[in-house]
Design goal:
Length: about 950
């Protein structure tokens, strides 16, 4: 089976997309720079290391290594700062790889197979915490185990999410595993990514005699003067699909994986860290055999090529044996290594070599090997089939190429690539006039993208205009900045892109998502699942092609270095100034609060309580009393979580905060100012100011709890019961999208544990006290809440003789689906635990070094118990009768998978069997997302809220019509 590479992205010194990388390779560019003592000190390196006799002041830093568009990926400021830039880079590159060819993912099952180098981001930035406690914030943000899962969570991928680690060969091993996943059907599309960033970025290193690092600060694979390599920086991502599927989908194919193989050297080597010729020969021949390709057909081979005096000759001997001339070779095989250009990117080394080889095949051009003059004396290059180019070599007939990557520890990988099949001539009409629309995350990004795209099209003037339009139309729609024009030729497009007065249209059809909802707000962009051009069907015969991706709106997000070295003070002044300015903008005095208290804080009297601010202790004024202290401390911690620019009117959740993050912040407040928190009383409160005031009130009084919460404006049009977790934040999310709709929500009973009948009876009492029981009453709920809403309607009909006007549910399964629900099963426990841990994963505010049980485990345990108690109630629930009310279910388009349903004991065939339980009509409306992303993905929430509002208005319009008729 063959696999198509249909998308690619890269970020390395000198290149931010694969076309720029191609240009750098073609001119033989290298990216090694001298690092002065002052710059190394400013970056965080200590003076002792810089003064070492073997210190080499050379590095290959990545510009903007800590830049990131957190809003696009729906991260709070704290989560972005605490997440390893390597993992942030993978997010950005994955988006760009999918965007580059307008890849339509639709409902495809997408797997993520990624690797990153060991994280060094937190070194010199945070104090070591107690070994007796789990530091979730730094663990989840920086441990390699979560790299693939982070991609799956942020992009909604539902295929395998595997982080692969085999040292330097990791990224090609990840590619091999991705191909296996595609072949076995575990995934329909595979994202393979690798990133390697070492911190601090601009610093040299201390070489060791006989080690891999170069004492001269150079990287010259296979050269007579080779003496090691330099640490590189950057990353890359490729997107794969089974070849037959890619052809059927019309994907832009960059190259084809014809075969791959992995193995290990075992014990047949000099030492654990030493390579072995026999192991390398085996993996090379296995990949050729799997690809059904003769060694004579390979015209270019991207070698591992570390540039060491030991490693290069061993690799060359293995290559010479596996690629021995069998008599069919008509031209030499060119040998090269991207390490000559960029150094050794550790876990990402194979990915960079893979991207170079893709470009070699795509361009039909062998790139020169910089720094190469003569072969290593231990390498008999002249007596072999291999040659090394010192200038670009046209190779238009090049069909096959290969890539090697060998890891310390003996895990080897070899991949055979085939040139992409020719897409054929576009049948869309050539340079017929088309509408071209560009989207970007900001006006500045849009200006930069117009310039970049114009430069690319100037160099590729033979592209079909319809293909360009089809590709751009298939990309994400960013509402922040749009440029559009009617274009008749590629030449005209280049000219128009350069014009400063280019047209900017207001929001219209091009700014609407595929579900017809206007993207006029700040919700993340939506990816199209099909090509939509200026005229319906205008590009139906066009090919999608690779085009440079539009840049995101990236800004600096980094934790400051600690100020324990006077030589580093100047490097941190910028961070401290920005933190103080951000706090001032938020109306929070004294700078953004970190969440760690010093030992001095624990011992300080009440009047001298302290919190750490940007690495420094700062007093918290307490003269206003406990109420003022609680409010001020909450505002500080909220600002640290959400970032600069917040005020009391900021919606905590709309600004990127997670409900579990709020739990952690409240826990920190109660750590420092002890009082009992009633989380139920916070349910539904969303603004920072109101949350702070509510907590301050709880700190000084027991408080009261009403039975109903109010959202939106005006009289409530519907009464909603919360899902199994017991909170109404999902309805707050609805209200943010449709604030004109009045909603009322029941509070979940505390403690939980009653039956659905008992819960519904309490809700009937709440309705009676509110005077809301009449035939205009509309009930509803999400998931478990929908079942409670049904039971409320049943009890009202039976006990009060009142039939609810309508019941509206969000992906609520009918009671018949739960006949075999395994409430006490390991699978359900795992399901609940997984959801809680997913929430904790998004919890940058939860730092165990500062948290007590009250702010962490006990709260999570409470959530778990509520969830499980309500699930047990659902398992026992069998309605005592039917209702007369009609039911509308907003069903998640992506269903629960069959294996998970079986494991949980849920009957998928009965999930929507509501017609058995009502004499009224049942209407099912599909909305995007799955059972969880329905309320966690802003794009999905936006669609569900609009459909919900339309449904609710139609229900109440019947009331108005009947009133008019009477």
């Amino acid at each position: 089976m063959k696999f198509a590479i249909i998308g690619a992205a890269i970020k390395v010194p000198g290149a931010t997309d694969i076309d720029l990388f191609r240009a750098e390779l073609d001119r033989g560019a290298t990216h090694f720079e001298s690092v002065s003592r002052e710059r190394a000190l400013a970056s965080g390196l200590n003076a002792e290391d810089i003064g070492h006799a073997n210190y080499v002041g050379v590095a290959s830093p990545l510009p903007g290594a800590e830049d990131f568009d957190r809003e696009f990926f729906r991260m709070s400021a704290a989560e972005a700062r605490w997440t390893d830039p390597q993992q942030r880079l993978l997010l950005t590159l994955t988006h760009q790889a999918l965007e580059s060819g307008g890849i339509a993912t639709g409902d495809a099952r997408i797997g993520s197979y990624v690797t990153v180098s060991e994280s060094s981001y937190l070194r010199g930035r945070v104090d070591r915490v107690s070994t007796a406690r789990v530091d979730y914030q730094s663990l989840i943000g920086n441990d390699r185990d979560f790299a693939a899962a982070r991609l799956a969570y942020r992009f909604g991928f539902t295929g395998p999410a595997l982080t692969i680690q085999s040292a330097c060969s990791s990224s090609l091993v990840a590619l091999h595993q991705a191909c296996a996943g595609l072949a076995f059907g575990d995934a329909d599309i595979a994202v393979v990514g690798a990133a390697s960033l070492s911190f601090p970025q601009p610093h040299g290193y201390i070489y060791e005699t006989g080690g891999i690092m170069s004492p001269t600060g150079s990287s010259r694979p296979f050269d007579a003067e080779s003496d090691g390599t330099v640490r590189g920086s950057g990353g890359g991502v490729v997107v794969l699909r089974r070849l037959e599927d890619a052809l059927a989908q019309g994907d832009p194919i960059l190259a084809v994986v014809a075969g791959s193989a992995i193995n290990n050297d075992g014990a047949q080597r000099m030492a654990f860290s030493a390579p072995a010729v026999s192991g390398q020969v085996d993996v090379l021949t296995a990949a050729l055999r799997r690809a059904a390709v003769s060694p004579d057909d390979i015209g270019y081979l991207e070698a591992h090529g570390t540039g060491t005096q030991l490693g290069d000759p061993i690799e060359f001997r293995a290559l010479s044996r596996a690629y021995a001339d069998t008599g069919g070779r008509t031209a030499p095989c060119h040998l090269g290594s991207a390490k000559a250009n960029l150094g050794h990117l550790d876990a990402a080394a194979g990915m960079i070599g893979l991207l170079k080889t893709i470009l070699t095949l795509d361009s039909g051009r062998i790139f020169p090997q910089p720094g190469y003059r003569a072969p290593n004396p231990a390498i008999p290059l002249d007596d072999s089939i291999f040659t090394i180019a010192t200038e670009p070599v046209p190779s238009p007939d090049l069909r096959y190429a290969a890539v090697s990557s060998f890891g310390m520890g003996g895990t080897n990988a070899h991949v055979i690539l085939e040139r992409a099949p020719h897409p054929g001539v576009s049948r869309a009409g050539g340079d017929r006039g088309v509408r071209i629309t560009l989207h970007a995350r900001s006006e500045a990004a849009l200006r930069g993208y117009r310039t970049r795209l114009a430069a690319y099209l100037r160099d590729h003037a033979d592209l079909d205009l319809a293909d360009i339009a089809a590709t751009l139309d298939a990309r994400s729609r960013h509402p922040e900045a749009t440029w559009t024009a009617h274009i008749d030729s590629v030449t005209e497009l280049v000219d128009r892109l350069h014009e400063d007065a280019a047209t900017r249209e207001p929001s219209g059809p091009a700014d609407r998502d595929p579900y017809g909802i206007s993207n006029s707000g700040s919700a993340p962009a939506t990816r199209q699942t099909r090509v939509v051009a200026g005229e319906p069907g205008a590009h139906s015969q066009a090919h999608r092609i690779w085009l440079p991706p539009a840049p995101l709106a990236e800004t600096f997000h980094g934790l400051p270095l600690r100020l324990d070295d006077p030589a580093r003070v100047s490097s941190n002044s910028k961070n401290d100034a920005e933190a103080s300015a951000g706090a001032a903008a938020a109306g929070v005095p004294g700078g953004l609060a970190d969440t760690t208290t010093s030992s001095r804080a624990d011992a300080a009297p009440e009047s001298e309580r302290v919190v750490t601010v940007s690495g420094r202790a700062a007093s918290v004024a307490v003269s206003g009393g406990v109420e003022a202290d609680v409010r001020e401390l909450f505002l500080r911690l909220a600002a640290e979580e959400l970032g600069a620019g917040i005020d009391e009117r900021t919606d905590f959740f709309a600004a990127g905060g997670e409900s579990i993050a709020l739990v952690a912040i409240v826990g920190k407040v109660t750590d420092r100012i002890p009082f009992a928190v009633d989380f139920g009383a916070l349910d539904g409160i969303t603004t920072v100011g109101e949350l702070g005031r509510a907590l301050a009130g709880q700190a000084t009084a027991a408080g009261t709890r009403d039975g109903l919460l109010a959202f939106g404006s005006g009289e409530p049009m519907i009464h909603l019961f919360p899902p199994a977790g017991g909170t109404n934040y999902c309805y707050a999310a609805l209200s943010r999208v449709v604030p004109e709709i009045g909603l009322a929500a029941f509070r979940a009973p505390h403690p939980a544990g009653g039956s659905i009948e008992e819960i519904a009876a309490a809700c009937v009492d709440d309705l009676r006290r509110a005077g809301a029981i009449d035939d205009r009453l509309v009930l509803g709920g999400y998931s478990f809440g929908g079942n409670v809403a049904f039971e409320i309607a049943r009890q009202l009909q039976e006990g009060a003789g009142v039939s609810a006007r309508h019941v509206i549910m969000f992906d609520s399964f009918a009671p018949d689906a739960f006949g075999g629900l395994r409430v006490d099963s390991d699978q359900l426990a795992t399901e609940v635990e997984g959801r809680l841990r997913t929430a904790t994963a998004a919890l940058p505010g939860y730092r165990s070094a500062a948290d007590t049980d009250r702010s962490g485990a006990v709260v999570l345990d409470s959530f778990r118990e509520i969830w499980l108690a309500n699930t047990r109630a659902l398992d026992r629930y069998r309605p005592a009768g039917r209702i007369a009310s009609p039911i509308t279910v907003l069903r998640a388009r992506q269903p629960l998978s069959a294996p998970r349903a079986r494991a949980l004991g849920i009957d998928l065939g009965a999930t929507m069997s509501w017609q058995r339980h009502t004499r009224g009509a049942v209407r099912i409306i599909d909305v995007p997302g799955d059972h969880y992303t329905l309320f966690t993905d802003p794009a999905h929430v936006a669609v569900a809220a609009k459909v919900f509002a339309q449904t609710l208005r139609s229900v109440h319009s019947v009331d108005r019509e009947e009133a008019t008729a009477s």
